[in-house]
Amino acid sequence: MKKLINDPRAVVEETMEGFGLAHADLVTVSLDPMYVVRKDAPVVTKVGLVSGGGSGHEPLHAGYVGRGMLDAAVPGAVFTSPTPDAVLPATLAANTGAGVVLIVKNYTGDVLNFETAAELAQAEGVDVRTVLVNDDVAVEDSLYTAGRRGVGGTVLVEKLAGAAAERGDSLDAVEEIAKRVNAHVRSMGVALTACTVPHAGVPSFELEEDEIEIGIGIHGEPGRHRLKLESADAITARLLSPILADLLPTPGQRLLLFVNGMGGTPQSELYIVFRAATQILEDAGLQVERSLVGNYVTALEMQGCSLTVLALDDEMIELWDAPVHTAALRWGV
Amino acid sequence: MKKLINDPRAVVEETMEGFGLAHADLVTVSLDPMYVVRKDAPVVTKVGLVSGGGSGHEPLHAGYVGRGMLDAAVPGAVFTSPTPDAVLPATLAANTGAGVVLIVKNYTGDVLNFETAAELAQAEGVDVRTVLVNDDVAVEDSLYTAGRRGVGGTVLVEKLAGAAAERGDSLDAVEEIAKRVNAHVRSMGVALTACTVPHAGVPSFELEEDEIEIGIGIHGEPGRHRLKLESADAITARLLSPILADLLPTPGQRLLLFVNGMGGTPQSELYIVFRAATQILEDAGLQVERSLVGNYVTALEMQGCSLTVLALDDEMIELWDAPVHTAALRWGV
């Protein structure tokens, strides 16, 4: 295992220390229990937005804490759900009295731990709503999931719900936006190489030198099938086809196309995939109205990518374009 | 070789097509000759800023074209200088009559080709100045260089000179800022793994499973020495020590600390290095005033990082904070 780390067991803590130092203008980092909150939290009368999950997917979620997106994020150990005793104080820190929406990727551990934290926060008088993200069309159930997994679409849910909360929407309205985005977003990924969890020290799985895995999860958990390496155009078609078959966009539908790097893929390859995906979507009579290309939901140093397609409506476009100021997404401010 | 590509010989062209599609609001991409210009270029009466070099370092340079940074970028083949017949039209496109500054990383091929293009542009009546970036303290001469190589510091030169040009500084003033930044910036890198040039198909060099290379270049060219993998803290000290010995900052000096990923390194590891570097700098009585952490000058899928330290003055801080709107760096707009 070759990593720029010190103690494998201290990876998350040292990452968050470094993150706090680099973004001291944006966030405050609590190390024990571990969570990240907006420097200016709680923002008076605003609905709070909290997310979290296992580490190793950086910049998800701490990189999305700031104006126009999350109020707090809770990183667990690598690929391991954060515990309720960390989710609870993050939820309380994000509460201004207007209530809190928890955005939870659909993994069994996350669902349980966030649900427990929600109940504890409710017992303290906070109105808490939970929105599950389950955008991965690759598999219906998985190693860590009942139902579909939450992957790249999470970033879009957090951005759009975050913009709604920032403009002063009610708790009901922010919850509705988050659910609406989740209902209209689909994703699927591919791995060219495995990744190694620091405290495990060995790759999570093995791929032959000429083999890729279609439908991979962001923890390296199994996807749909393995096959020989193909061209970027062919792989892109393999990812987009089940996405479109499930999303069923109407002709002329405006889309947000998000090509996400898994952590170890050069940016050039992501743009080659973006090019291929745009061609397929436009040939299908669809309209790529907004785009995002880069490493936004990663699996450590895994090589590969995921495609995420969101069917946009006017309000979603307005919320996407709204100012955001976080470590990993920033515009308009 | 496992890459998300189609034809290895079409990697740069397809990358730039995808880039142009994803950032159609920002840039116009010319494929033959290949260069990228600001959508709104030429901006009336503004000094033009042009850079370029071999591809494979994305987002450098095309990712820095836009308001407050470059007016044009010229990507060559992977790890290969662009030719004068591409640099010339990019230079002409960036010229509004106020002259053009070419920012050139100090590699023999780049220096020659940009110099030829500068002469051709001058023959067409454009006042052209060339600023060489040579911030890498690792080696004095290298495979591809007489003198020090230009690496991470290039991004800072482009940002600060770009902000100076955007606020309306004269050609002399923009040239002076670019040279001043280069005079006060130092970098050094480390590789944990090699990278593979697509049309070569095999790794540029070999590293044992427990071996790293200190002082690596951004094309995988040799650095200072190889050693066994150490802790992130120890590696960070090995990179910072020669930087500080060369930069010789005065006590209390304000610094911009830039931790750059080589392309295949997880963000978490970059923050662990940032944490270590901050501790060393603060223990030395120096002040980390601004920071940048991420993949900004890469070497394809290489795992590793570089550290860049810029000694800031008041004007540099003002120029760093000024609005920028490019594909890879964006704030204030």
Automatic annotation (TrEMBL), chains A, B:
This is Dihydroxyacetone kinase subunit DhaK. It holds the Pfam family Dak1. Keywords: Kinase, Transferase. SUPFAM superfamilies: DAK1/DegV-like (SSF82549). The keyword Coiled coil does not apply. PANTHER family: TRIOKINASE/FMN CYCLASE, TRIOKINASE_FMN CYCLASE. Residues 7-331 form the DhaK domain. It comes from the Bacteria. InterPro entries: DhaK_1, DhaK_dom, Dihydroxyacetone_Kinase. It comes from Arthrobacter horti. GO terms for molecular function: phosphoenolpyruvate-glycerone phosphotransferase activity. Its EC number is 2.7.1.121.
